[in-house]
């Protein structure tokens, strides 16, 4: 299985090269040159597998060049850190299925991908005799999942910038209490936007980037998408076993289009997903795209679901590639138009094609809070605000034709304030957070200046 760029201006590369490249060298995103398809019989057989068995089966279809035993070891280690024996269990509540993706070390679905990516990076770096210094900026969730993905790994150091005293106390502690020697938390005296700007500037210095082998763990790495394809198969198998259904809906709270794009890949592989339901908060560029063919940037609004407070969906270009019949010249033109005008619009014909894969909707702040409250009153089950958005939109868009599976992307304890507002009680802290404020922590507070960050990386690089 070779990999291509959505912009068509690189040679085909191997899986290993695609993982190390991250963003394609032509500025596009990497995708497999073809998507393997599975028969109904294959899919039925998958439903009997444990999560790690299934992950190995799916990932190996895309990961040529890694010996089966090595891949098995990588997968097994990646999912042994999850606290639930099923890794991503499916629970039935109020007539819908909730796919709990938050049993990893940082209690959000990003662990499913980043636990795997961290192990994969370590493996590939060792094979190549190379090192990597990961640099990133976070407003909360991704930073801690990335840190937990690479803590204690050989030949990798990680530097994560967060805005000093501007992330939630739990999120800050989840990062700063990781005291492994290869982990560096930098609290910058500035905002999240300062952090992003600094990271961009440091990466833009190509000499520095190559001298210190800078790497990124953002959601555009193909291996992250790939690891997320697995749980669509897993959940469908569990629900089919329960109900005998032939199809299912998946509702996905969406920001960067990464998680839901993994569902699109699963659908193209043959998983009988009736429609993927794209759920957004008030930052609704993606639901406007699905509903009206309007993909145009607006200002970012703060919501109770901060991990979806995004306007530029970094994985969207991957979907465009398929929507434009894999015509890379068309993708290049669309992305150039988008970057000059800040918007794209799609004609009725294309909109109709989008509608064959997706339904969509969005939830306001008060609808999100109300959904948490209503669901709790009916079932006693506490949804986190991101998950609540998926539940609200999913229920609105479907009518019981086939089961609805809602992706639960975070543990409610991570977003205790929104939950408190909705139901007037706090969710129980899971064991991994208990006593976190008493653990030793490590963090450097530095000025929001590119040079300060560059110097720090230089002095602490591996
Ligand atoms: C990152 C995140 C999302 C959005 O996922 P995308 O892949 O960016 O669409 C949703 N919920 C939570 C809790 C997240 O951390």
TrEMBL record:
Reaction it catalyzes: O-phospho-L-homoserine + H2O = L-threonine + phosphate
Record-annotated Tryptophan synthase beta chain-like PALP domain positions: 94-331
Listed GO MF terms: pyridoxal phosphate binding; threonine synthase activity
Keywords: Amino-acid biosynthesis, Lyase, Pyridoxal phosphate, Threonine biosynthesis
Pathway(s) the chain acts in: Amino-acid biosynthesis; L-threonine biosynthesis; L-threonine from L-aspartate: step 5/5
EC number from the UniProt entry: 4.2.3.1
GO biological process, one term: threonine biosynthetic process
Modified residue annotations for N6-(pyridoxal phosphate)lysine: 110
Pfam name, any one: PALP
Keyword Aminoacyl-tRNA synthetase applies: no
NCBIfam families: thrC
This protein's name: Threonine synthase
């Amino acid at each position: 299985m070779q990999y291509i760029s959505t912009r068509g201006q690189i040679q085909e590369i191997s899986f290993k090269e695609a993982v190390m490249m991250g963003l394609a060298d032509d500025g596009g995103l990497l995708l497999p040159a073809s998507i393997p398809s599975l028969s109904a019989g294959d899919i039925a057989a998958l439903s009997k597998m444990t999560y790690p068995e299934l992950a190995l089966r799916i990932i190996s279809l895309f990961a040529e060049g890694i010996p089966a035993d090595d891949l098995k070891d990588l997968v097994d280690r990646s999912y042994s850190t999850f606290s639930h024996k099923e890794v991503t269990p499916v629970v039935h509540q109020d007539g819908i299925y909730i796919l709990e993706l938050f049993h990893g070390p940082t209690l959000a679905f990003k662990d499913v991908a980043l636990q795997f990516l961290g192990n994969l990076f370590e493996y590939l770096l060792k094979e190549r005799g190379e090192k990597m210094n990961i640099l990133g900026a976070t407003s909360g969730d991704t930073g801690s999942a990335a840190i937990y993905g690479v803590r204690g790994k050989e030949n990798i150091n990680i530097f994560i910038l967060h805005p000093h005293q501007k992330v939630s106390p739990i999120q800050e502690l989840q990062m700063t209490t990781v005291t492994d020697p290869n982990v560096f938390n930098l609290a910058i005296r500035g905002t999240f936007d300062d952090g992003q700007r600094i990271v961009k500037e440091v990466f833009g210095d190509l000499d520095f980037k190559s001298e210190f082998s800078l790497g990124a763990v953002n959601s555009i790495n193909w291996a992250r998408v790939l690891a997320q394809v697995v749980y669509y198969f897993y959940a469908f198998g569990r629900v089919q076993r329960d109900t005998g259904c032939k199809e299912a809906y998946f509702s996905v709270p969406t920001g960067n289009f990464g998680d839901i794009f993994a569902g699109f890949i699963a659908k193209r592989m043959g998983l009988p997903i009736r429609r993927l339901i794209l759920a957004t908060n008030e930052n609704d560029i993606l639901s406007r795209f699905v509903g009206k063919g309007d993909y145009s940037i607006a200002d970012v609004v703060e919501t109770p679901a901060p991990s979806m407070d995004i306007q530029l969906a970094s994985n969207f270009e991957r979907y465009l590639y398929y929507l434009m019949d894999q015509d890379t010249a068309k993708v290049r033109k669309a992305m150039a138009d988008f970057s000059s005008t800040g918007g794209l619009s799609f004609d009725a014909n294309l909109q109709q094609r989008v509608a064959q894969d997706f339904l969509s909707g969005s939830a306001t702040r008060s609808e999100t809070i109300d959904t948490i409250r209503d669901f709790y009153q009916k079932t006693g089950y506490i949804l986190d605000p991101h998950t609540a958005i998926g539940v609200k939109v999913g229920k609105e868009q479907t009518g019981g034709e086939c089961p609805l599976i809602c992706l639960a992307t975070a543990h409610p304890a991570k977003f205790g304030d929104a939950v408190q507002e909705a139901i007037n009680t706090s969710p129980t802290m899971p064991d991994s957070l208990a006593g976190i404020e008493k653990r030793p922590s490590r963090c450097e507070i530095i000025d929001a200046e590119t040079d300060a960050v560059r110097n720090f990386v230089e002095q602490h690089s591996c």
